[in-house]
Amino acid sequence: MEENFLLAFGLTAFAGLSTGIGSVLAFFTKTTNTRFLSISLGFSAGVMIYVSMIEIFFKAKESLVGELGSDPGYAVTVASFFGGILFIGLIDYLIPSGENPHEIRTVEQVSAPGKVIKDPRLMKMGFFTALAIAIHNFPEGLATFTAALSDPSLGVAIAVAIAIHNIPEGIAVSVPIYYATDNKRKAFCHSFLSGLAEPLGAIIGYLILRPFLSPMIFGILFAAVAGIMVFISIDELLPAAREYGEHHLSIYGLVGGMAVMAISLLLFA
After folding, report:
1. Angle at which helices 19-28 and 152-181 pack, to 10 degrees?
2. Cα–Cα distance between 239 and 99 in angstroms, integer?
3. Could you give the CA distance from residue 217 to residue 76 in angstroms, rounded to a whole number?
4. How many CB atoms lie within 10 A of CB 253?
5. Three-state secondary structure readout of 102-137
6. Which pTM was predicted?
């Protein structure tokens, strides 16, 4: 796995720093293409759910069964999967809903009408949104990094899926700060820096776990990653996809994401 380190880190950085893409789009877009956003978020959810349940979970099970035996290995896999869900769920619970990055907002919802309003409350909103996203991105970074370290093809798919859902987060950070300060550079920097938590989380997690890495620890971590990604998809991506587009668009995106992931796994297996 060590030979994939640079690729894994690069993919994690790409996924995290896509918040900067959202920031740039916010400055040049007056309205949000909700149909495209709905399909994209559904697609991202489809990729993450399929790869988690079909590929990552069973890789974790294979590793743990090989170490612990059939029944204990399967039990630890299931426990780790739900442990990952509990972990990311607790992070969501501890972040106030007003600043929760799972509350995806469009350009119109976070922008002030007409002109810049230098209101310190907007600056506070943008700052706390950036902080919340940074906290939330730590486990996402570790998930992307771990998957890419084990299997680069999986890492690419997960990085693209996470990058898609990080773009609206960049909008949520940059727009309030811009309207509070009339400073696009400051708004972009805050949005960009919030995304740095993703590669930072990957490196910190890797350095902590590296001395203990073994097939068993890897299996536990991989199962937890699957749980984290399933939770993100169900709690964030699918509800947002349905909210910002027609119901069928989010489903088409979901199925499309699953199909693309399935085909890529068949081609590169």
Report:
1. 40
2. 17
3. 11
4. 27
5. CCCCCHHHHCCCCCCCCCHHHHHHHHHHHHHHHHHH
6. 0.72
**Cα–Cα–Cα angle for 144, 80, 131, rounded to 5 degrees:** 45
Judge whether 44 and 215 are in contact, CB under 8 Å: no
CA distance 140 to 19: 13
Helices 57-68 and 215-232: angle between axes, nearest 10 degrees: 150
Burial 136-155 (b: 16+ CB within 10 A, else e): bbbbbbbbbbbbbbbbbbbb
Q: Report whether 12 contacts 156 (CB < 8 A).
A: no
- Tokens at 49, concatenated: 């759910």
- pLDDT per residue over 169-212, tens digit each? 777 777 777 777 777 888 888 888 888 888 888 888 888 877 87
| pLDDT band, very low/low/confident/very high, at 70 (cuts 50, 70, 90) | very high
Q: Are the CB atoms for 192 and 23 separated by under 8 Å?
A: yes
Contact 54, 260 (CB under 8 A): no
Give residue limits of the domains in the chain. Answer: 2-264
**Of 162, 172, 186, the residue nearest 133 (C-alpha):** 172
Q: Kindly tell me the burial class for residue 239, based on how many C-beta atoms sit within 10 Å of its own C-beta (0-12, 13-18, 19 or more).
A: middle
